[in-house]
Amino acid sequence: MPTIEKVAVIGLDCAEPSLIFDRWINDLPNIRRLVKTGLHGQLESCMPPITVPAWSCMTTSKDPGTLGCYGFRNRKDHSYDGLSIATNLIVREPRVWDILGAAGKKSIAIGVPQTFPITRPMPGWQVTCFLTPTLESGYTSPPELADEIQQLVGEYLVDVKGFRTDDKQWLLGQIYEMTDKRFKVCKRLLETRPWDLFWMVEMGVDRIHHGYWQYMDPQHHRYHPGNPFEHAIHDYYVHIDRWIGELLGVMDLQKTAVWVVSDHGAKRMDGGFCFNDWLIREGLLVMKTPVTRPSKFKFEDVDWSRTRCWGEGGYYGRLFINLRGREPTGTVSTADYEGLRNELTAKLEALEDDQGRPMGTRAYKPEQIYRKVNGVPPDLIVIFGDLHWRSVGTVGNPSVYTFENDTGPDDANHAQQGMYIVSHPSIRPQRRDASLYDVTPTILRQMGQAVPGDMAGRPLT
Q1: pTM of this structure
Q2: Torsions phi, psi for 226 (to 5 deg)
Q3: Exposed, middle or buried by CB within 10 Å (0-12, 13-18, 19+), for 443?
Q4: How confident is the model over 131-167, as pLDDT tens digits?
Q5: pLDDT at 404
Q6: Do residues 43 and 433 lie in contact, with contact meaning Cβ atoms separated by under 8 Å?
Q7: Domain ranges in the chain?
Q8: Angle 17-22-25 (CA atoms, 0-180°, nearest 5)?
Q9: Distance between alpha carbon 348 and the CA centroid of its chain, in Å?
Q10: Beta strand 265-268 with 412-415: parallel, antiparallel or unpaired?
Q11: d(CA 243, CA 231)
């Protein structure tokens, strides 16, 4: 039986298992070939299932609490407005390529979210992620790799800037251009560099879901049959599959374990729940002056002396309690803190949707779902409507339910279950669900390395 000498990970941000394994598998010949020669199934994401921190959770096998990273925007201190973008600067745990690098192995990492800025150059080659502000920001290691990329594809796209847009034809072109350039760079490096681990992530799958889900899904409230973008997501998956075939064509598949993974899945978005407006109605959040039209939530407009908690918007909700001795103008005593959390959990989980049906919201206490709780966590992590509803942070909305996204057009939310395939002649084909935390321990086992005891996952093979 051939042994594994290399591992290649093809990451597809937000790839949805029901589309790949159930709906379109016969249209994806390269993915189908990998499924038939390896393990595959759903891949349980972290909580919350958000791109940042999910890929860092996967590459470290550590949960968000251990990483101290709870979302794309992270609270850096206990000031009210202390939110910052969660870049690589906050990740302290070693990723899989750091562990392999210490063992003398070389890696190629391209587009893996939360790898900008490059703080510890890996033994090998790296291209940073969608958090990169400009191409002049030092987005490659070694730096001269940027010149080679420029010569190969022209202006490299780390992301589609402004993907929440109504100009769907423009967006489609940008997604394809970004994808083609990324895969061309991946193929070039696979062909020209000596590598032991290859790990790339394509963001286009996420962007096309958020931009076009309403055109595909008959259950989406905006769906119209026969619309010009009805097959946009399907055709893009077929395009991605062709590129996967291009990468497989330059690998020795007898010696290489090939992964295709997503950090979370995708589902239709039914609407938004106006978290802060609900807290205002509950008497828990008090503005200095009543807000009568939809407006951005501004910390300076809050009467903190009468406010007990506030919420953050996004694909999931974060609730923060105005705790005395912790926040600058805290009002909730330590003695009342746990009772308030329990009261809020009960109220949130009893919420109904706009039709009066149980919404199915869940609220989680960080210390109950994470091994450690580092950094500044939310006091409650709130998943509205099993992720069919997003958390809307604006205030002054006419209802707590809204069907217009506060950050621009967006058709989809994230799903808790992503997908994975791991293929090699030594692996017996079967369908078996797994956890995002299992990926790195499995790769380390495949590469003949010990699995650190503090990892959250376990080897699958």
Answers
A1: 0.97
A2: 80, 10
A3: buried
A4: 999 999 999 999 999 999 999 999 999 999 888 898 9
A5: 76
A6: yes
A7: 6-269+414-446, 271-409
A8: 95
A9: 24
A10: antiparallel
A11: 19
What was the pLDDT predicted at 408?
A: 66
If one counts every other C-beta atom within 10 angstroms of the C-beta of residue 98, the result is: 15
Q: 271-274 and 401-402: which strand pairing?
A: antiparallel
Coil vs helix vs strand at 231: coil
Report the percentage of the chain scoring pLDDT > 70.
99
What is the identity of the amino acid at 188?
A: R
For 430-447, the pLDDT digits (tens) are 999 999 999 999 999 999
Report residue 233 as tokens: 């997501």
Instruction: Select from 204, 38, 214, 11 the least CA-distant residue to 108.
Output: 11
Does 406 score more than 80 pLDDT?
A: no
26-54 burial string, b = 16+ CB within 10 Å, else e?
A: eebebbbbbbebbbbbbbbbbbbbbbbbb
Non-local (6+) Cβ contacts of 87 within 8 A are 114, 116, 117, 131
393-399: average pLDDT = 95
The whole-number average pLDDT for the span 318-341 is 98
User: Per-residue pLDDT averaged across 61-74, rounded?
Assistant: 96
Please answer whether residues 200 and 11 qualify as being in contact, where contact means their C-beta atoms are separated by less than 8 angstroms. yes
- Rounded Cα gap, residues 312 and 416, in angstroms: 20
198: three-class secondary structure by DSSP: strand
Beta strands, E only, 90-135: 107-110, 124-127
CA separation, residue 173 to residues 104, 176, 269 (Å): 41, 5, 24
Quickly list DSSP for 26-42. GG-HHHHHHHHTEEEEE
Q: How far apart are CA 190 and CA 187, in angstroms?
A: 5
Q: Percentage of the chain surpassing pLDDT 90? A: 94
Helix (H) or strand (E) segment spanning residue 188? helix 168-192
Q: Which CATH architecture has domain 6-269+414-446?
A: 3-Layer(aba) Sandwich (3.40)
Q: Which phi and psi (to 5°) does residue 135 adopt? A: -70, -10
- 61 neighbors 68 (Cβ within 8 angstroms): no
Residue 49, pLDDT above cutoff 70: yes
C-alpha dist (Å) from residue 101 to 11, 192, 339: 20, 19, 48
Average pLDDT over every residue of 117-126 = 96
